[in-house]
Each structure stands twice: as C-alpha cells, then as structure tokens.
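Practice record 12: protein with pyridoxal-5'-phosphate.
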Amino acid sequence: MMADDTRPGAGTLAIWAGEDNKDFWGRATQTPVVHSVSFGYGDVDEWLDVALGNKLGHIYSRNTNPTVAVFEEKVRQLEGAAAATSFATGMAAISNTLFTLLSPGDRVVSVKDTYGGTNRIFLEFLPRIQVESVLCDTTDHAAIEAEIAKGCTVLYLETPTNPTLKVIDIARLAAAGRAAGATVVVDNTFATPINTNPLALGADLVLHSATKFLGGHADALGGVVCGVESLVKRIYHYREINGATLDPMAAYLLLRGMKTLHLRIRQQNESAMQISRFLRQHPQVEAVYYPGLESHENHEVARRQMRGFGGMLSFTLRGGFDAVKAFLPRLHYAHAAANLGAVETVVGPPATTSHVECTLEERAAMGIPETLIRYSTGIEDTADLIADLERALAGV
Ligand SMILES: *Cc1c(COP(=O)(O)O)cnc(C)c1O
C-alpha cells in the first residue's frame, strides 16, 4: 500500500486486521457474532472504569459491540487511519458526520455530483439548520478552490463520482481545504481502500457505504467513517446518542465479505477496464465513462491517485431511453437493480438507482443523461460479461 515497509499489504490486512484476537469465545478462529445487547460486570469499579472510557470493554451494543469493533478495526487499518466508527448504513455515516461537524451559520463546500442521498442532505436538510451548502461543478478545481478560500467548515468530496465517474484531485483540494481551516471529508465508496487511500492524500476523514464494495455481497447494509481520532470520537458520540448503530449480524457479513476485498477489486478493476474498451469501440454505444480510459476527462488525475480504476463504469446508448429499456432485460449476467459493488454485475439507469431521490430537472442540472446506464462490474469471467453485452446490444 503506502511506502511503509512495516505495513502489511492490503490483502493481508483484509484477512487479518482486527481478527488476530486469541481470546474470542471458546478460542474461535472466526469472529463470533455477539448478539448480546449488554455486557455484565461482577465488579462495579471495573464497570465504572469501562463506562468512563478508562478501560476497554463494552457496556451496551448501541454504543459498542465486540463484532462491530472488529469490523471497524479492519476498515481502520485498510484506510491507514487513527480511528474508525461504524453506522447502520452509508447514509447514516454521511449524515452523522455532517451533522456532527456543522452548526448554524456554517458553510459547506461540495460538488454537484455527490451520491443522490448526500445531495438531498445538502439541499434539503442542512438549510433547515441554517448551514449554507455550496455545490460546485465537480471537476472545476479552480472554482472549488475559490469557494473554499471564501471560508468553509467542511469540504466534502466524493470520487469517482456516481454515476458519471468523474475524478476529483483529492491532494490538491485537501490542501486548499486545510489551508482554509476546513475539515476535509471524502466518500471513498467507489474507489475502495484497495484503489485509493484519501487520508494519505491529505483528507481528515474518509467514509464508505460498506453496503457496496466493502461487504461486496449485497446482503448487508453498513457505513463507516475513519480518520483523525478527535473527529472520529465526536462523530461516534453523535451516533451513539442518535442510534444509527451497525447491527452485529451485518458487521459479521461485512467482515466475511471483506476477506476477499482485494481479490474482488483486482478482478473488477481488470474486467471494468476491458469492458470499457469493448464498449468504446461498439457502434451502438454513444459514450463510455471510465477513469481508466485515456479519453476520460480526468484520466491523468485518476492515474495519480488510484492504484486501479475501479469496477464502476457507465455508458449511453444510441436510440434514447427506448434503447435502454430494450437493452437492460436482454442482459443475462446482470441484476437490473439499485445497488453496486457486489460480486454479481448490477446495472441500472440513474433515474432508478443513484439519483432516484432527484427530479428529472435536478438530474439534468447535474449533467446526468437520462439514457445513461450504470454498470457495476461483478467478478464473473470477463469474457462472459463482454459476450453478454455484445449479445444484448445485438438484440436492441
Ligand atoms: C450507496 C452509496 C451511499 C449510501 O450508502 P447506503 O449504505 O445505501 O446508505 C453513499 N455514497 C455512495 C457513493 C454510495 O454509492
């Protein structure tokens, strides 16, 4: 990962981080799912010490839980962070982070292309507490820097973006954010810690929808925030009181999924690259959005900050929305569904997936074509996915 000889590789961390505990119940080699809501103490002094945070331990599972703690530790190490805390969903991670950091009168600078739910927080919920949200053109770095320089409490970035895969220069904007005294937050859901570590590029906090690539099997919701300890502590406190806690069973499923994170991402990086090249030369395909393509508008930035270009791509078909409606059901190896980052390939138009919360006009303002198809590459054999696309296109 980083140029640190003592730091194990991402694959080793995906397997072992947080799971080297030799004291699991009955010496289990696998992390047990601790469904217990509370944890008992024979010694009241010890109970008090744990309650006051002077001693490690658990009191009540809305606050902390042994299984959930292992999940947090694994992500913490993969992101090279000082601290991590988890949430019931990715949106809980995002909203709890923003509502912890922002107060009435504050200003947050972000971009137009954030995840649909995040965009709703900026436009619908933050204004209700008198926080001003400034949403800039996603790749106009000079314009974003100009807004940061006017003063902001939080600089909130997401890269690559959903669904048109724009790439933001984290190092450049994090430097500007820090110079202005802002807390720099990056949603790293699309890149994953295998491809990018935003904290190493200058961000203060990195967050994920663990529902997507981290879990990887589309069977558990979760979210996580990592970074500077003092900030993570404040966000944890907000979450323990507001109660958007990750369930231990979900934590277990996410942990189990994360053991193959590096293998899945390697395969998805490779397949998405080949699929993008295939689609780009196909006469029925109008445009392909993938940061790994040299023709991509942010390819240079992507090469600098991504170790792989990720499993997400999108494309538009010639023939309008009718072509999209004819094409999607013809794909054999893809769920048409509102999810991404799974072992199976998942496809869908933004109107029903990432930006279902937005109106047609809002999507147009964000530069999201209605004929776009978002393609989340699974871990199937690359040749089969390409053959499937070829067959489906031939039938349109
Ligand atoms: C899905 C997603 C979220 C929201 O995560 P949930 O787990 O669905 O709440 C946030 N950011 C990005 C980039 C996402 O793809």
